[in-house]
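User: I've been going back and forth on whether these two constructs are worth ordering. Before I decide, could you fold them both?

Assistant: Sure. I'll take them in the order you sent them. The first construct and its structure tokens:
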Amino acid sequence: MKRKRKIVILAHCILNVNSKVEGLATYSGALKSLVTDYINKDYGIIQLPCPETTFCGLQRWGMSRNQYDHPNYRRHCREILIPVVDQIRLYKKSGYAIEEIVCVNGSPSCGLDFSFEGFTGGLVNSEAANPDVVRKVQKNGVFIDELAKLLKEQGLKVIYKAIDEKKQLNKFSLNINGRRHTWCC
């Protein structure tokens, strides 16, 4: 069978929600509606590593973007992204199309259009850790920031797409006369 030569790159938690902070999962395993769309388009899928899991483990607290925006975390992101960027370069050099990199809006690491900042540290039950102090900011997540820098350094251009997991869960599609129609919310 002939290869389609189209690839999509997905944030880790889209294929594996188990990497998220305990209590933040909004689906049971993989974001089926999104993943199925790519599979039905015959795209190959590359899963990005989860920087939060590889840096802090599975039993971590939820953190905001400003808490992850630290030189050690940025360095970690770059280190785990180097093999991914090498793979992107190899695919592009061999004539494959990287259709898009799919990010998760709101994530402190993988957000694209927005993320959240505000926690300033301290005890979990303190005023500084109060979720009411968290604010939405129009910034990429730290991991996506580092990915964009690495790709630019290599002269690789890609398209970024952001999903809102809650809206994605309420999405459904129907095949009518061979054409896919998608509704959301």
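The second construct, handled the same way:
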Amino acid sequence: MCNADNTHRNAAEVALDALRVRKLERNSKGQLVAYLEGCDEPLTDVRVRRYFPWSQPEHYFAICDADGKELAMLHTLHELDPGSRELAEAELADKVFNPKITRVLSHKREFGITTVTAETDRGQVTFDFNSREDVRILSPTRGLFRDVDGNTFEVADISKLDPVTQRYLQRYF
């Protein structure tokens, strides 16, 4: 049996488990199953989560149970065999909807709410945000806008956008 209860473990102890994940696979129900070193039984219905999805998307991943409790950590997905890595990448891709803004078509501010209509890599969107508090700057050229519904829209590189879009977005960078 595997002791997956991390409630009495500190962060350093969890970090030591970086090599614990032996394999990931899907069962007949489509659930993600993790095989961990030191566990007699596989853990069913696990999730893969990024610790730092915006600042370090290629590093630091958690394997969590269905309740979100951390079971193991990976520094990179390259610690996994190719089949397990492919499953982890698919799991992450299914969970993240993060359109990238390619052009701002219109914007207006009314009653403290800014409404933006933009073209993205996923099609045209209109979203509302309240204030600068809803904008997270990740680098001098990269940022995220969080709308009133909690969705995020990424500006991957403001310098690669058209001049009108740059001029509008620059006020938030």
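Notes on the second construct follow. The two ends are 51 Å apart (CA to CA). The chain has two domains: 11-95, 101-170.
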